Amino acid sequence: MANIQLDEFHSLLAIVQSIDVGVVVLDRDYQIEVWNTFMENRSGILPAIARRKVFFDVFPEVDPAWFRQKFESVATLGTPSFSTWEQRPYLVRFKNYQPITGLEEFMYQNITMMPLRGLTGITEYICILIYDVTDVAVNRRQLQAANEQLQRLSSTDRLTGLYNRGHWEEMLRVEYARHRRYESRASLVMFDIDHFKRINDTRGHPAGDRVIQSVAECIRENIRDSDLAGRYGGEEFVVLLPDTDKKGALIFAERMRACVEALSVVHDGAEIRFTISLGVADLSLPTTGYAQLIEWADQALYASKAGGRNRVTAHEPG
């Protein structure tokens, strides 16, 4: 009876050979019984050669554990199962030949597995439908990439690539909320470039921009992945150090001071050397809000300025 049913399916298959969907029918031992034109054209394997071969032998890239779980669930429950390209990019790795989306190496696929029952009601075969959704996947990925790019542009400073003030302050607010909830430690380092106006006035604004960029590069060399660095405004920078006490923040600040002092920026054939002044504050003292941490760090920064510049000062109570 099962053979009669499968023969009937072969007859129906002749009607859908021209449809751009892959059709594979497997028996309960994962052997291929039906192999349509879509599969032949994409794999280069003739139906006569594919028939009676074990599916995993033809497509060794298929994850056997995942596939068997899906397959047996369809066979046992007698209900279809679906898998989209977002869950798994493809079932079988076919090259992508579409001219518009030709930049992709492989075909993205949606998969449907359907039970084929014999006259006894027992599922004796599983039909697998493979849909080419490369154009949908590529469009979705391009849209996501564009949105991510817009997000980066809206949260970063164009000149330095560091976080801009709006985004950085929002991250500080989140970190402060974490501190209030879990009593976590955090420190803030604020600094600016000494005599920056003199650099702009004597060397020009392009030179000033290059100086600011070199400081940003120095920041990236010294921060951890968990640290948050931003351009606060003009020549002023901030670095939030989560899970860091004042002692650790002072070590980081001194490392930054020494890094900048060692910099040499060459612009229009002239060497520009400069320093920074830094202020450090932490959350070991009671605060009224995250803005107070900024105020403390700013006060410590100006104490460094008043003390002669090119130095690190920590905020102290009173």
Automatic annotation (TrEMBL):
<dbReference type="InterPro" id="IPR000160">
    <property type="entry name" value="GGDEF_dom"/>
</dbReference>
<dbReference type="InterPro" id="IPR035965">
    <property type="entry name" value="PAS-like_dom_sf"/>
</dbReference>
<dbReference type="InterPro" id="IPR029787">
    <property type="entry name" value="Nucleotide_cyclase"/>
</dbReference>
<feature type="domain" description="GGDEF">
    <location>
        <begin position="184"/>
        <end position="317"/>
    </location>
</feature>
<dbReference type="InterPro" id="IPR043128">
    <property type="entry name" value="Rev_trsase/Diguanyl_cyclase"/>
</dbReference>
<dbReference type="Pfam" id="PF00990">
    <property type="entry name" value="GGDEF"/>
</dbReference>
<protein>
    <recommendedName>
        <fullName>diguanylate cyclase</fullName>
        <ecNumber>2.7.7.65</ecNumber>
    </recommendedName>
</protein>
<dbReference type="InterPro" id="IPR000014">
    <property type="entry name" value="PAS"/>
</dbReference>
<dbReference type="InterPro" id="IPR050469">
    <property type="entry name" value="Diguanylate_Cyclase"/>
</dbReference>
